[in-house]
Amino acid sequence: LPIYIGAGNIDSIYYPDVLKVTIKGSVNGNYTLTRVNGTNIGLPKDSGIFANTPNYLYAFTGNLDPGQTYTLTITNTTSGKTVTSGTSPIAPFIIYNPVYGQKVSLSNSSPVPIRWATSANAGVYDLTVRLFYTEFRATDNTVYKDTFIDVPFFRSYILPSSTNFGDVELTEDGLIKYMASHITSNVPVYRTFNMLKGMQFKFIAGGNELANFMNSQFAQSGLASSNALPPYTNIIGGEGIFSSRLYVEVDSVQLSDDGLDSLACGSDSQGLHFKGSHGQTCN
To answer: What is the pairing mode between strands 82-87 and 30-32?
Structure first.
């Protein structure tokens, strides 16, 4: 209980404004970070046992080079204690499939291949598929709202270091089962796929340090506490993870006629009242 009480106390999870935080590149670039409230810059903290207001972060603006190593230095100006760490930013990577404007079906027998080139300095990947749609009032066919659903297709996907490409497959089950359990079905509306916006494939790549941490957690799962190794950290003089992440997305991926019909008439989606390729609903 005392741990939970402390987590909700701002003074227990944040230092006073006594930290000097800098990042320095191995070739060039020297930045001093400023303490900000993340909520004020569009980065709110999720709710939970930890206090989320204010949400103190240290921020700077600059262009980072994936070919450099950047050293983080944090100095407590009151105690004089210093901790350091280093990482290299994730390099941009290419999404080979799907591509902008591509029409895809949603079939368990003929899944959509998803392929991307692995990125330098990246060790772990997430993919969220955002599907845009419009809801209409069934009583008078007027627009109720334009909206979307985010489907977390995979999380914390760690590829072998020798692999140059990521390859997965998107099936009807992989998308529509999630939609069916997260979209309210018992409302007097019908829905249409938003052809203008389509789907976004939103990739997030996390640094090698994050992958190392996750691998260490996997390796120790099931061990008794007396046999567990110390937690993985790449912070010298402290504990934690200093790494990077990169966002890459493909916009306006469309559904083919078969895909629209799967969205409307699939075994899991009929109760969602989507219209198919000929304006039909299958509920």
So the answer is: unpaired
Distance in angstroms (rounded) separating the CA atoms of residues 260 and 172: 11
Phi first, then psi: give them for residue 4, nearest 5 degrees. -65, -35
**Bridge partners of 170?**
112
Quote the CA–CA distance of 237 and 251 in Å, as a whole number: 43
pLDDT in tens, 3-56: 567 777 787 888 899 999 999 999 999 999 999 999 998 988 888 888 778 899
**Angle 257-265/172-182 helices, nearest 10 degrees?**
40
Segment holding 136, helix H or strand E: strand 122-137
Q: Which of 203, 222, 275, 214 is nearest to 243 (CA)?
A: 214
Q: How much is the pTM?
A: 0.87
Residue 192 tokens read as 């249409």
Specify the pairing of strand 143-158 against strand 122-137. Answer: antiparallel
Kindly state the greatest CA–CA separation across the chain.
Answer: 70
Spell out the long-range contacts of 85-89 with Cβ–Cβ below 8 A and sequence spacing 24 or more. Answer: 85/234, 85/235, 85/236, 85/240, 85/242, 86/234, 86/242, 87/121, 87/207, 87/209, 87/234, 87/242, 87/243, 87/244, 88/120, 88/121, 88/207, 88/244, 89/64, 89/65, 89/121, 89/244, 89/246
Tell me the per-residue pLDDT of 118-168, one tens digit each, with 9 for 90 and over. Answer: 998 999 999 999 999 999 999 999 999 999 999 999 999 998 878 899 999
